[in-house]
Design a protein that fits this description.
By secondary structure, the protein is of the alpha/beta class. About 25% of the residues lie in helices and about 25% in strands. Strands 3, 4, 5, 6, 7, 14 and 15 form a seven-stranded mixed sheet that branches. Strands 10-9-8-11-12-13 form a six-stranded parallel sheet, with helices on both faces. A two-stranded antiparallel ribbon has the order 1-2. Strand 8 (about 150), helix 5 (about 155-165) and strand 9 form a beta-alpha-beta unit. The protein starts with 6 loop residues before the first strand and ends in a 6-residue tail after the last strand.
């Protein structure tokens, strides 16, 4: 069967809170491209739930981005089927990580793909985009050895943030989330203390866990606009607050007097903040290296696996049962084969 007639499938949002599986032609790789058979894709529950439920204000970048049909997803791993002209470094059979939506087959620019080490399972490698996003937060935080860090939110981005802080040599890593079931994952990833509480009620526990001082770095990974003001009040004098969770309602993020009176630095971090040194390829390669060397654990983070035809159930679970979800995978093995 030629690549142009592969019976490919992909997940699509056809309207607010409407998701289905559709067929499409995968096509053939053009110059500089790869045709890839997807093995697994990982739902980005924060971003995809905002989009699925249209939880964003008019005029925001979400509002400008989301048009129907909308094809969600950006975390996929799979096997190269065919290589386009002028591609070097890749061959059919290579295992690769790539940034394309939830689909059985994909055309991807080779320069944006990364080979997966032979001893790294697909189930671990598929976390690479969320690790990359959190890396930008860690970079913005400018971690020092022995640093004190507060991470607000223990969802997928918060989990990745915890692991980067640990890999960077932070001394105190406190993770706060109202959903207690998520905190065990944070402890496994390097948190020195976890607190099950709403952030507005956690100050005294944070102080106790941080040796009586507020943390120098606060990472807001939640994407919840209401958390921002609390985050400002929990950073040490002259500390840094990193806004890592991307909210759909930025107008509701309010400054407090802490910014002026205590000399705080506020810095945003985003998936698109790539540089010549740190970009899709280099961050992913670092992540893969740390995971294979046992310095960045993603073991146990995948909580649910769905077949693509059960995509309605997958998004229902992601919305209805957040306290008991972490990594939600779509298993494409067998789809369009």
């Amino acid at each position: 069967m030629s690549s142009s007639t592969l019976p490919a499938q992909r997940i699509v949002f056809t309207a607010k809170q409407q998701v289905s599986l559709e067929s499409f032609e995968a096509g053939a790789p053009a110059q500089g491209e790869l045709l890839i058979r997807t093995e697994l894709s990982l739902m980005s529950t924060g971003t995809e739930n905002i989009v699925f439920n249209r939880l964003f204000d008019p005029g925001t970048h979400f509002d400008k981005w989301v048009r129907y049909p909308f094809y969600p997803g950006y975390a996929s791993v799979g096997t190269v089927l065919a290589v386009g002209a002028d591609v070097s470094g890749f061959a059919a059979g290579d295992r690769v990580a790539f940034r394309v939506g939830h689909r059985s087959h994909a055309i991807a620019v080779a320069a944006n793909c990364t080979k997966i080490p032979a001893d790294l399972p697909f189930e671990s490698a598929v976390w690479f985009p969320l690790a990359k996003i959190a890396f930008h937060g860690a970079k913005a935080a400018r971690y020092r050895l022995g640093d004190s860090v507060l991470i607000i939110g223990a969802g997928p981005i918060g989990q990745m943030s915890t692991r980067w802080a640990a890999a960077a040599g932070a001394g105190a890593i406190v993770v706060v989330d109202a959903m207690e079931s998520r905190l065990a994952f944070a402890k496994a990833g390097g948190a020195t203390a976890v607190i099950s509480a709403g952030i507005e009620r956690a100050r005294e526990q944070i102080l106790e866990a941080s040796g009586g001082r507020l943390p120098r770095v606060v990472i807001d990974s939640t994407g919840n606009a209401a958390v921002f003001a609390a985050a400002l009040g929990l950073a040490a004098d002259f500390g840094t607050v990193v806004v890592l969770g991307d909210t759909g309602t930025p107008a509701r993020q309010s400054l407090t007097p802490d910014v002026i009176t205590r000399g705080l630095t506020i810095v945003g971090a985003h998936d698109a903040h790539n540089t010549a040194e740190w970009n899709e390829r280099t961050i992913t390669e670092l992540f893969f290296s740390l995971v294979t060397r046992g310095r960045f654990s993603v073991e146990g983070l995948n909580s649910h696996t769905f077949r693509p035809e059960a995509c309605e159930d997958a998004y229902a679970v992601a919305n209805r049962d957040r306290a008991h979800t972490m990594g939600i995978l779509f298993d494409w093995s067998g789809a369009g084969r």
